Structure formats: structure tokens, C-alpha cells
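Run log, item B.
One chain of 300 residues. Sequence copied directly from the ordering sheet:
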Amino acid sequence: MVPFFAIKLLQFLSLSPHIQGTGGQGNRLNAVIEGGIFRDNILFNFIHMLESPVTDLHNFDSLPDNLIVDREDPIRVLILDLLLSNTELRGTTFAHFLLGFDTKGPLEKTVLSNPVSDHTCFHVILDHLDQDVENFAGSPLYNDHPHLAERCYHLVYALSANPKTSFPTMTYLRQNHNFFKKHLEYLPIGPSFETSVGSAPQQIDLQFDLMGNYSYNNRNEEETEFISKIHCRAWLLKSVALELHTSPSKKQVRQTQELLHLLFSSPSVSERTTLLFFPRPFSPVVVLTVFFCLPSRGGL
């Protein structure tokens, strides 16, 4: 419970106008933490909390719903909310320090390091997103922790879209993870998110009226989890759109062609079975259309 309220306090402090620097020139909280003797301890503890979910959840039962977003994974979801709220601020913030950016110089000149030499919260987040994403018999993050996965994909997009962090983020994702192609290829785009190989895709009752209102019925899944899974795909598609616009024209021709193929080609029958894709009309473009009919959350 103590880490939960400590993170909440840091979030309130970091967003306070008294803490934020004038003219978007940095953040006092970041300066205090980076210049303090507990700098490395703070980074280590955030990494540790992100790596593993809380196992003892009864302490969170007494917290009101307006204070806790995800009762199954309260700490990690709260950390992602802290990172997201701080990356939306102007200037250098506490989040950039946790994510491995060079906060002593211009953020756009950062070269994000290899996790072997300098492990950061950004590396942990990418590890979580990559885990089992190519293995449908495994437990990918979007299936086991959809609220957390939604925020992770949102953070990738936020860092890619921000002019100060876009270049180092997208360069790292492109060169070290092949992130955009891998996730676009393996993240299911239909409304079935079951990962058991050999099982039939689960039909979901999703009905729309002429005004764009919808009704959802699935006994095995909360409506909020379903919405988070749709948001995962939407944030990924928005990130891919940025990649297509910003890829170096000559060096990235093959990668751009691969992304366009994944976006607009029709999957074969074997791909539909193996990857649990629904037949068209559930193309990525249609998924985006469905997404924009869902309740907006987090600035989408």
C-alpha cells in the first residue's frame, strides 16, 4: 500500500504548477531526484515494481473506485499513468529520467541505451509488450493485463508523437526491436482475443445503432477489458502511421512495404486459423472505425 500512495504523491507533485518549471524549461521534481543521493535507488525501485505485479491485493480492497483504476494490477497501472501524465508536459520531466532519456541535455539528442548496459523503465515496458506476442499459446500482456497493455501502447505512441522524444524513441524501436512490424503482424485485429491454439475464435456480441451507440455482451470478459484491448490496437495503429510518415525514405523502403502489406493485405485462410483473425470485414481500418465509436479515454 505504501508504494501506491508514494507513486500517487509523486504524480500530484509532478503535475503541480509550483513544481513545473517556468516556460516549459524542465521540472523541479526531476532536478531534485536526479541530483539526490537516492537517484539510483528510486530508478531501481520503479523498475522492480514494473517488472512484477503485486501479489497481495487485499490491502487494496478498501480503496475507493475513484482512486484505483485496476484492482488486479494497481501499482503497474498507476506507474504507467504517472509516466503518461508527465510525458504530456512541456520540457524535461521525472518520466524522462525513469524512461532513460538524457535529462541533462536536449531530449531529442538522446541515444537510448541497450538494456544490458543501462536498464530503464522503457526497457521493462517493451519487454512486457514483447513477451509472448509471437506465441499464441503463451500469455501476452494484452490478454492477461489489458488495462496495463493499453497504457504501454499509449506510452509508445506518446513518446513517438512528441517532437522532443520522437527521434530517439522511433530509432530505438526500429533498430533494436523491429517493434512496429512485429506487433502489427502478431497482435490479433479481430474481436477474438483467445490465445489457445486449436480453439475456435470466440464470437462477441457487439451491436451498433445508427447513432454509434453500442451494446456489448461477453460473459467471460468485462466490458472495460474489451475496450482496453481495442485501444491497444488503436494506439499501435497510430504509432504505425507515425512510422510510415517518418521512416527515412531510402533506407526503410523494405520495412515500409512490409508495414503496408500487413495493413492492407487480406489474410489467407491458414493465417486466419493460425493467428485467430476474423475474416473481413474486421480489417485494421474497420477496427479503427469501431474504436472511434467506443467511449473515448486517455485522449484518443
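Observations after the first pass:
- The CA atoms of residues 11 and 82 lie 6 Å apart.
- The chain has two domains: 1-103, 131-300.
Flagged for discussion on Thursday.
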